[in-house]
Amino acid sequence: MARRKDWDTYFMDIAYMASTRSQCSRRHVGTVLVQGKKLLGTAYNGAPSGVSDCSEAGCMLVEEFELVQTDGQEQVVKKQRCIRTIHAEQNLLLFTDREDREGSVVYVTDQPCWTCANMLANSGITEIIYHRSYPKDSEKVGALMEQKGIGFRRMEGYEPPPGTIADVHN
C-alpha cells in the first residue's frame, strides 16, 4: 500500500501542477491558497487573459539596476526581468476573496519576489510555504515576513511530481 502524502506535500504538488499552465519561457511558478485543509484557489504566472503571452510575443524584458552591499562594498548589479507576465502570487490575489485569505496559507513553487511578498503581507494570510529559493530577495523578504508575523518556510527535501519541472531560462 502506498504511503499517504502529508498535507504540505499534497498542496505543494498541486502548486506544481498549476505551474504547468504557465507559458513563461523564463520560469514556471504555481501557487495555491489553503484554509485549514480546504483548497480555495490556484494560480500560475502568465500574461493577462486574452493577451499574447511570452511564448507567442516574446518576453518583454526591462533592465534594472540594484545597489547591493557585499562585504561592506556597494556594487551596482544589472538585472533583467520580464514585465509581460503577472506573477502567480499576484494572480492568486486577483482571483480570490479577501475573506477567504484571512488566516489562510499560501503554497508557492518559488519563494516570492519582493513585490509579491509585499502584496502577500497585506493579504490576510498567516503563512507562506515555498520550495525553490529566490536568492535575490531572500533576506529582505524573510525580514518582512518576520516583522509581519507571517510564517515563512522552505520545504526542504521536497520532490515535485514527475513532469512538472519545465526547462526554463533565468
From TrEMBL:
SUPFAM superfamilies: Cytidine deaminase-like (SSF53927). Keywords: Hydrolase, Metal-binding, Zinc. Pfam families: dCMP_cyt_deam_1. PROSITE patterns: CYT_DCMP_DEAMINASES_1, CYT_DCMP_DEAMINASES_2. Its cofactor is Zn(2+). Residues 6-155 form the CMP/dCMP-type deaminase domain. Gene3D superfamilies: Cytidine Deaminase, domain 2. Belongs to the cytidine and deoxycytidylate deaminase family. This is Deaminase.
